[in-house]
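Tutorial handout. Part one gives the primary structure; part two gives the three-dimensional structure as tokens.
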Amino acid sequence: MTVVHSPCDAIIARNQDESARVGRPGLVIATTILASSMALIDGSVVNVGLPAIGASFAADAVALQWVVNAYLLPLSALLLLGGAAGDRFGSRRLLMIGTGLFGAASIACALAPSLAWLLAARFVQGVSAALLMPGSLAILGQSFSGGAKGRAIGIWAAAGAAGGALGPVLGGWLIDAGSWRLIFLINVPLAAAAIALAYRYVGADADEGAGPLDATGAVLATAGLGLATWALTEGSARGWSLAALVALAAGGLLLMVFVFAERRLGDRAMMPLTLFASPSFVGLTILTFLLYGALGGLFVLVPYVLIEAGGYSATQAGAALLPLPLVIALASPAAGGLSGRIGPRSLLVIGPIIVAAGFLLALRIGSEANYWTGVLPAMVVIAVGMAGAVAPLTTAVLMSVDSHHVGAASGLNSAVARTGGLTATALIGSVMSAAGPGLVSAFGVAALVGAALCAGASLSAWLFMPR
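Part two.
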């Protein structure tokens, strides 16, 4: 999920006015790629390792869901705060701190003696990713100008797509060759190289004099999402107990308080509510949540089902996802050009419908499915639909708000995409707790739900976007 949304994230950097000349531009780009690739790859490579992690700790479905969500929760809640922190304390400083923390948390994941230790380390990874990702993009925006800025961001986005394609395959190979713990150690040399390059080649931070951070909003968003995620995870896997219902209600209440607090802060809020005065932005937010929610569930379930029900090795399961990032990376530029000629609305209506068709094809994935006839067609169709939606979504976000709110709108859209994945992962407990033929049947139901979510995303574009 994180890989295919990176072009929208890049708008944060594109729309910064500051620029600075750098003596070694290639090394500046390499710095941002190394730092952000850790967070992008980690978001997908762990999915391939879930069965091995479950076997190592005798973990049930709920615990495996939290291996994913312990990372997505702080990333979703704190991504906007991370961007604001970079404005206040300096993008270079935040990137180095976030990267160092991510590397240390990765070592803690690799050495985890218990599941609780692993979940705590994954949470720290999510917090550090929320710090380093906006910083890497802001550094590109500050270090380049004009056409050089566009080329730098294009290289960054292409590298992210390549990392997303190779990450699950490399992770699967490491799991088959050694242990799931090795997939976390990939991050350590990347972190060390990124910090060294940032210290040597990225320009020193300027004193921006930015305003205070929205700490209240960050606490409320994290607590509200955390309680709601726990409730959805428990309810989907173990049934709706009184504790789950109370937690869901408490999480909803905290999120309502969060909205009220953001309203009082106005444009100083981490989520400026003035953005939602635009009907188009409302529609795009709904579209993003539904589409990336469906895709987030797919990224977790397909490798899990292929390994547990299809008998795939971890390497084979990781390779099964290769068509998604590859097709998206290759086809998105053409979709972006078409969006510029005809407008984004048509593509945002059609793209999710194609993704829904891919989810229906995924009904053929099961214990007896051949990869070439059962898995590959679904992955290719989903990828084509996503390629038709990713670039137009970026354009539509830009068009939906005034020039003063472009960065905030793009950042919020990125956070909503990750929240969609967080919610979807919380709701797939009944699938992951099934076994044998029941797992295949439960996956089929999830694929139908995914298709319905994509259809809802298409409807949102049709209803809310101007003709």
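Part three, for discussion. The chain has a mean pLDDT of 85. DSSP finds 18 helices and no strands in the chain.
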